[in-house]
Amino acid sequence: FNDLLTGAERARFSIGQVQYFDDRKVTLFGEGGGTRSRSPLAGEVVLNPLDTLEIRSSGLWDPDTGDTEEGRSQLTFHSSDYRYLASLGHTYSRGEIEQADIATVFPVTDRVSLIGRWVYDSDLNRTVGSLAGLEYNNCCWSIQVVHQNYLTADRELQGRILFQIQMKGLGGSGGASARVAEAIYGFDERERRRYGTP
């Protein structure tokens, strides 16, 4: 659904399900093929009540068991120029994870912004990820220095420092921006607007 005056998208709804007409003989992990006639229902709802506010929820629901297999809900606010971003999120995967996260990009001056994200797993009762850093930018270039904590395969938190310098109109060096874009929804749109990339 689009705004009649501006053309901006205000709401989007989608739902889908795969129907199987034969048993599957090959699976991704080499296990036996399934015999179910249908997949879980996949759905997504995106609401944009304001130009600066987005509410997004998606998930998989199994009609055979009545269980929600996985889901992600997120509330994101951004300034019109994307200099300021803030989001709250919840991620669920049945029997695996249930996590809440909060993230922000907060300008403290015209050229300096704080970057942060915190992820808490309620099943593990602990922090499973965090990101904190600074960004400086001017008309021609930007620099980002970020400290990231992430969960290893052994369920231990490990830290690393990420660094990136980016020239306007040219590529960047380092990996901070890509990691921040993965962690903070809307950050990639902020970068596109700043550097004019498609």
Structure write-up:
With 198 residues, the chain is mainly beta. The protein has two domains: 1-45 and 59-70, no CATH class; 99-198, no CATH class. The chain is 9% helix and 53% strand. The protein has helices spanning 176-183, 187-195; strands spanning 11-16, 41-50, 53-62, 67-78, 85-93, 97-107, 112-121, 126-137, 141-151, 157-167, 172-174. An eleven-stranded antiparallel sheet has the order 1-2-3-4-5-6-7-8-9-10-11, with helices on one face. Strand 2 (41-50) and strand 3 (53-62) form a beta hairpin. The model has no long low-confidence stretch (mean pLDDT 86).
Q: How far from one another are the termini?
A: 24 Å
Shape: globular
How many beta-strand segments?
Answer: 11
Helix content: under 10%
Query: Uncertain spans, ≥5 residues at pLDDT below 50?
Result: none
Structural class: mainly beta
| Series of H and E elements | EEEEEEEEEEEHH
> Which radius of gyration do the C-alpha atoms yield?
20 Å
Largest sheet: 11 strands, antiparallel
Count of discrete structural domains: 2
Largest sheet, spatial ordering of strands: 1-2-3-4-5-6-7-8-9-10-11
Beta fraction? over 45%
The residue-averaged pLDDT reads: 86
Helical element count? 2
Keywords:
198 residues; mainly beta; 11-stranded antiparallel beta sheet; globular
Summarize this structure briefly.
The protein has 198 residues and is mainly beta.
